[in-house]
Specification:
Blueprint lengths: L13 H6 L4 H11 L10 H13 L5 H9 L2 H4 L10 H10 L3 H18 L15 E10 L20 E9 L5 E8 L7 H4 L7 E3 L7 H8 L4 E5 L5 E7 L8 E13 L2 E13 L6 E6 L6 H9 L2 H13 L10 H24 L6 H10 L7 H6 L1 H23 L1
Parallel strand pairs: 1-4, 4-5
Antiparallel strand pairs: 1-2, 2-3, 5-9, 6-7, 7-8, 8-9
Helix pairs in contact: 2-7, 3-4, 3-12, 6-12, 7-12
Length: 408
Amino acid sequence: MKQVKNIFLSGHPIIAQLLTMIPKEIFNQVVEQENSDRYYKKLKSADHFICMFYAFLTRNGSLREVCKNISLIAQKLIPFGFKQLPARSTLSDANRKRDSKVFALLYLRLYTYYRTSLQGNWLDIGGEVDPGMVEVFDSTTITLFKEILKGAGRNPLDGKKKGGAKVFAKMNLAEGVPNFICIRSAATNENIFLKVMELQEYGIAVFDKGFNRYSCFEKWSSSNRYFVTRKKDNARYEIVMDFDCSNSRDIESDQVILLRYRENGVSRTVELRLVCYFDPESGERLEFITNLMGHEALTIAQLYKNRWVIEVLFKQIKQNFELKYFLSDSENGIKIQIWVALILNLLFSVLHKRIKEAEDFSTMVMVAAKNLCSYVSLEKFLVNTETYCKSIFQKELNNIQTEIWFSG
């Protein structure tokens, strides 16, 4: 009886398939650049990363659990740089002492490596703007179990206050993953992000009014960099020109304004555009300020409406990768966990693009996490799940028929 060949089998388990998405030369370059193995004899950077990669993907609740579980699959990880099973204390020390910069740099190198494969025009912002030139950014706060990083808000009556990490992220609309990340304490003011973030020439930044920094708007306006944001309620301005909006049902007004502000005690002005938009879905009246003077008013509104994608990104990372329970009580260890979660999200986003979104993102992550030792090709399985199931049952049916034939 002819055997049915299983085209879904892979030479490596799923965890190894995911690790091969990180080119060895990139990892080694990062380790060498940050010199992250210099003071570590027992736990090298590769061992440390694989342990954290496994821990956050499988949602292990403690370092003891990580060490026990990974020992069961360690043999499968040896070809991918895993050299030694760490003790719990050794892994704890590494989380506290090995600088999180090595994981941050690894994320940025992997982003650069996969950037082309991530691109794709999948958002509707009209024909006036190339999504590849639009950068949206926002911040999300991750609550911590104690005040390691200073939390936001007032101190409670009992004097105890939980800490929090604020993750600032910038994302290109055509890519779907962060291209710039800054991790600070939850108490950090949002408008400092414009100081550390760089915007490419002719790029368009889209952000909430909490990030508004008028001096930055003036700088961008004189250097071919653009933005769209909400107007603050206390903004002081003078109307210079009114445009005719009679042909647009949802645009109430479109004006050129002189926005007044003070910088280092000196009064200054910057010429901007103020667009008042009535959202037919929510019934809200929204006021946008921008330095995009030649675009349709509806395009300005549509650009801001697409800012929601970064909120979806934050939700995706928090839901699929462990950012509720931390395996370290140090600031460095917490940052390591955030960076590894971002790396996992990046790799699965690349995989999601490869399979042309044939499966839901969360389902894809869960299937991988629950079957890390399976030798089925994850990519082929996600694209052709039905065919895989048929092939398995056909193989079993053939085996049964063969046994009946020989027994006869």
